[in-house]
Amino acid sequence: MEQPITKREKILQATLELVQEQGLNELTTAKIARRSATAETIIYRHFSGKQEILVELLQRVGSDFQKSAEVIFAEDISPAEKLSKMSASHLSFIKQTKGISRILFSEQIHLAAPADPLKIAARAIAANYRNCVKQIICDGKITGDFDADLDAETASRSFMGLHYLVMHEWSLDSFSWDLQELNTSIADYYIKAWKAK
Amino acid sequence: MEQPITKREKILQATLELVQEQGLNELTTAKIARRSATAETIIYRHFSGKQEILVELLQRVGSDFQKSAEVIFAEDISPAEKLSKMSASHLSFIKQTKGISRILFSEQIHLAAPADPLKIAARAIAANYRNCVKQIICDGKITGDFDADLDAETASRSFMGLHYLVMHEWSLDSFSWDLQELNTSIADYYIKAWKAK
DNA sequence: AATATAAGTAAGTGATCACTTACTTATATT
DNA sequence: AATATAAGTAAGTGATCACTTACTTATATT
Hints:
The first copy, chain A, has 10 helices and no strands. The first copy, chain A, has helices spanning 4-22, 29-35, 40-46, 50-74, 79-96, 98-104, 107-111, 117-143, 152-172, 183-194. In chain A, α1 crosses α4 (50-74) and α5 (79-96) packs antiparallel against α10 (183-194). The first copy, chain A, is elongated and about 65 Å long. The model of chain A has no long low-confidence stretch (mean pLDDT 93). At the A-B interface, α7, α8, α9 and α10 of A face α7, α8, α9 and α10 of B.
């Protein structure tokens, strides 16, 4: 017998790939079954339905993302350097998990009821990330890396929003250019914009 | 007989309302017919299909948005003041046309072929807006409102991205708070972040 | 060898959806 | 009054989809 975990993992992996390639709207249980080399019936032995697969995927990738932010946050470097690293890590996250970003910003989530588990997972990921950026900004205001008068709320929104927009433009351009090219210009921009006047 | 234009307008209006309330995924021709007090058959006398209705809606609202940006751009005020007004107008646009924003950022558009008319319309709206912001920044670098070394490309992305993120958070929070409250903090933030060091 | 468990197969089910066909009715213009 | 045109009605069509039922087969553990 295969490890009990294997088939389940294959279904999750297949779902991730399909969302990346074709998006949430095109995701069907028939396709998931075909891609994971099984039958639709098997999916329902492991998950209650489509939604449950997506919730698990989102939680996994969300916790990876969170961990990578926490690692950077805990490093013994200046707030300005942390910011640089956060940006680079965000860009590489977008690049690696196009599919997940699509769930995060999908209409399904926007229109879901507040208690929807997919919506809860998405909000947690976004809130956690922005708090992390906000904390780096506050630290930087103390060390003098950033202007003491900087509005951390708006600044963190601007930082996160830029990455969001870049992802949007990249996707609208059919992923035809290299995201990581923007690494230095983004970091340079924020370090200059936020430094003391 | 009614004015030839009326029924067509009713269908467009009904579609806009439905997208605002329920999103693109929930939009069906049956609902459009019901909301515009007609029969599904009538829809197909005015439009080739669902997609054509959406393209027309997007083009109309897009050109309104563009016009409002152009009006601000042509005013005889400082670049910093133009920026303030752009932000305020963007927030009120988001507030008024939640439905349209949903089309702009929808998966349908992201995954559409480059030649898809809906995608073309969406890209045009976004590119036009960002160019307008970029031009204001370049003007401000000359007048001295903004730092001469400011990276207009990244700065305009940050500006547009912030509004994008605010819309995203507002939507995730089920439109429960007032967007316009952010007016002054956004303008203040950018004027300070971009001014000469 | 017996047993438990997951994988697999085959067939289907009810609901939804965009869009069509064929025909009739109301009304503005001439 | 005749005509053109849009609105309206009634019925349907083929495709897709998430999920189900009932049953059989393979394999790891005991």
